[in-house]
Amino acid sequence: MIQALQPSLRLLPGIALCIGIALAAHLLEAAERQAFRHPWLDTLVLAILLGAALRTGWEPGERWRPGLRFSAGPLLETAIVLLGASLDLRLVLAAGPALPLGIAAVVLLSLLASYGAGRILGLPHRMAVLVAAGNAICGNSAIAAVAPIIGAGAREVASAIAFTAVLGVGLVLGLPLLAPALGLSAQGYGMLAGMTVYAVPQVLAATAPFGSLSMQAGTLVKLLRVLMLGPLVLALSLLARRLRPPAPGEAAGRRPAGYMPWFIIGFLLLALLNALSLVPQAALAPLRLAAGLLTGIAMAALGLGVDLRALGRVGVRVTAAAAASLLVLIGLSLGAIRLLGLA
């Protein structure tokens, strides 16, 4: 019995360490909320930064590594499945065809432009994909969902999240200052925030100064934008053979074209079940809570895999690519709002 439990017991130290870091990140976000009413850095970003800060001064030994690998692997994949409960495909029908199609066009063009900017600035292929996905859709969640599909390492994931988070905070602070010069109504400004700001809490923070109409418009557009994560992960999964090299010991060509990881299938299935009202309402909140908790633990594990001193050597290029991508996204979003007559 003890021998059968040994593999599981080996995971405990690393998982416990990640849980501690995730809990500290949650407490810091609560302190932000108490001080500023809205958190500028959410739990996921804080978990990455705390883990990376700890890793910079201390390298986890063999005792911790099995749990860290498990947290950054199966736990993260399970969290991605549970994220499907946060998506409601019925929002597309309720908003009418023009707005979702406009958002989809902005996301697609932003993905292509962001990826191109990253490659021009010398980012590796996988890093450019991560920055593009995080910028175009929903920041941390998109990066976390895309990373396993393309085989991105912990350093690449942490780099993309860290620098995207910094720019995201800057956008929340700066976008309201630009509003008078843009000549947008409260609703139009809310839509611009929903199309450009990365996280839902940050959308609320960016739109709060302009009233409830702006907040409602921003939240709706943001949720519609998050729906684009499903088609993105599906498309990347279908291209997985080209985006991700075979695993060690896996024969080239053995994996069939269109290979799709189990967690992406689970993500799409849960989103579909939710849209068909087949997921009990009482289960939605626990599923979303579990997704957030597991993602926070996984982000702590990813942070522990990154030495910030090494991260600094690639920071300029990543930051430049993320900044260029953000400017493109703002321009595309303004164009779509004016084209649709929503300004």
TrEMBL record:
Q: Of which family is this protein a member?
A: Belongs to the UPF0324 family.
What InterPro entries has UniProt attached to this entry? UPF0324_pro
Q: Where are the transmembrane segments?
A: 93-115, 127-151, 157-179, 191-211, 223-240, 260-279, 285-306, 318-340
Q: Which domain of life is it from?
A: Bacteria
| Entry keyword set | Cell membrane, Membrane, Transmembrane, Transmembrane helix
- List the protein's name: Sulfate exporter family transporter
Record carries keyword Transmembrane: yes
Give the organism the record lists.
Answer: Roseicella aerolata
Q: How does it sit in the membrane?
A: Multi-pass membrane protein
* Entries under Pfam families matching the protein: Cons_hypoth698 (PF03601)
Entry's localization field: Cell membrane
Please tell me one Gene Ontology term that the record gives under cellular component: plasma membrane
Provide the primary localization: membrane
